[in-house]
Amino acid sequence: MSTTLVHIGVRTTNLEKSIRFWRDALGLTVADAVDGRFDLTDGYHNFRVFQHNGPDRPKHIGGMLDYLHIGVRVPDLRAAAKRCEALGFEITWEGLDGTKPYDPNSDELPSIAFKVEDPDGIVVDITERNDQWPGVDIESKG
């Protein structure tokens, strides 16, 4: 038996904005919702987003100075980019390595991958490729 990653939890400063990002922009499914908490899923993993009710947290330093980032595979990269932009989430970089700045004034949408920050500054790598992260076997789970 091997260890299986099944759950990630994010304590958010604004639950409503975070759910708009994870559910509406990125397309995760809501499996359960209880006061101050949403359980989202891709069918294999639990991603819990819950409201931070403690003392004020220091502001996260965004951009490429992330101390945490999450990778997400979507079925249609261009549609995901359009949803992110339409919902007001700023795409920060295009490509897999984060070296090509994204131009929001261009009609060209990302074609391989892009990075976007959630409302709390967590950088999310978005791709539609199956080979982005070593050790992940998406094909056999589809």
Helix run count? 2
Average pLDDT, all residues: 85
Largest sheet: 5 strands, mixed
Distance between the termini: 22 Å
Structural key phrases:
142 residues, 2,3-Dihydroxybiphenyl 1,2-Dioxygenase, domain 1, 5-stranded mixed beta sheet, 4-stranded mixed beta sheet, 9 strands, 15% helix, globular
What does this structure look like?
There is one protein chain. The protein is about 15% helix and about 30% strand. It is of the alpha+beta class. It has a 5-stranded mixed sheet with strand order 5-9-8-6-7, with helices on one face. The protein has a 4-stranded mixed sheet with strand order 1-4-3-2, with helices on one face. A hairpin with a 4-residue loop joins strand 3 and strand 4. The relative contact order is 0.20. The model has no long low-confidence stretch (mean pLDDT about 85).
Quick rundown:
This protein is an alpha+beta fold and 142 residues long. It has helices at 15-25, 77-86; strands spanning 7-12, 29-34, 37-41, 46-51, 69-73, 91-94, 100-101, 113-117, 123-127. A hairpin with a 4-residue loop joins strand 3 and strand 4.
